[in-house]
Amino acid sequence: MNIVLLGPPGSGKGTQADLLAKRYQLVHISTGDILRQAMNARTALGIQAEAQIKAGQLVSDDIVSGLVGERLRTPAMQGGGFLFDGYPRNGNQVYQFDAILAKQQLALSHVISLEVSEQTLLQRLLGRRTCDGCGRTVNINLQQAGNKQSCQVCGGELIQRVDDDEAIVQKRLSVYQSETRPVLNIYGERGLLHTVCGDGKVDEVFQHLVSLLSDVL
Ligand code: ADP
User: Fold this and answer.
1) CB neighbour list of residue 217: distance below 8 Å, 6 or more residues apart
2) Where do the domains of the chain lie, and which CATH numbers do they carry?
3) Residue 150 and residue 155: Cα distance in Å, rounded?
C-alpha cells in the first residue's frame, strides 16, 4: 500500500500518518519533518529552506523532490509500503513525483485528503505547542486550566512552531488553497482521490481512515 495523505495545515496529517504507518507497517515520510530537522541541525539545506518555512511559503520544488527521491532510494524502502505526508504540494511536485515513482517502478494506491473547517484549523494551529521535554504535542486552547507555558505531564517547556504564528498561519492556509488544491484535482482525475472528514477526535478520524482503506483494499 503506497499512500499520499494531503490536507491543509492543522488538518492532523502528521498525527494520522503516524497512526496509519504503525497500523499498516508503512514507512512514514513527512517532508515538513525532514525540512524542520535540517533547519534545526543547521545543515546547508536547512539554512536554505528556513526563510521559506518561516514565511509560510513552499520550499523550492527541486529541493523537496530531491529529498523525496533520496528517501525512496534507501534500502529501508525496498519491498515495503510508504505513506507521504505533505508531499506533493503543488502541480509541479506531482509531475516530479510521477517521474521518481516511475524510475523506482512504484505506484500510488491511495491519495487521501483530510478535510477540516477553517475555524477548526485556526484553533488547532494557533494553540499548538510541543513539549521540549517529552515531545508531546498539546493544544493550550483546549487545556482546562493551569499553566500554559509548561507541560502538564513532565513540566518541560511548551514551544510554539516558528510557522504557527498567526500571520504565517494565514499565509500557509492561503498557499494551501492556491497551490495544493490543484493537486487534489489532478489525483481526482486519475481516480485515486478519497476524501475523509478530519474534524473530530483523533481516534474518530483514524477510524474513518481505517474503514476507507479496508473498503478500497
Ligand atoms: P503544515 O502542513 O502544517 O504546513 P508541514 O510540517 O507539512 O506542516 O510543513 C511545514 C512547512 O514546510 C511548509 O509550510 C513548507 O514551508 C515546508 N514544506 C513541507 N512540505 C513541503 C513540500 N512538499 N513542498 C514545499 N515545501 C514544503
Assistant:
1) 1
2) 3-117+170-216 (3.40.50.300)
3) 5
Quote the pTM value: 0.90
* Single-letter amino acid code for the residue at 92: N
- 89: annotated active-site residue: yes
List residues near ligand 1 (CB under 6 A): 9-10, 31-32, 35, 52-53, 56-59, 64, 86-87, 89, 93, 163, 172
Asked about 181 being catalytic, the answer comes back as no
Ligand 1 centroid to 32 CA: how many Å?
A: 4
Q: What is the pLDDT of residues 105-129, one digit of tens each?
A: 999 999 999 999 999 999 999 999 9
**Measured from the CA of 125, which atom of ligand 1 is nearest?**
3
DSSP 107: -
Max CA-CA distance within the chain? 53
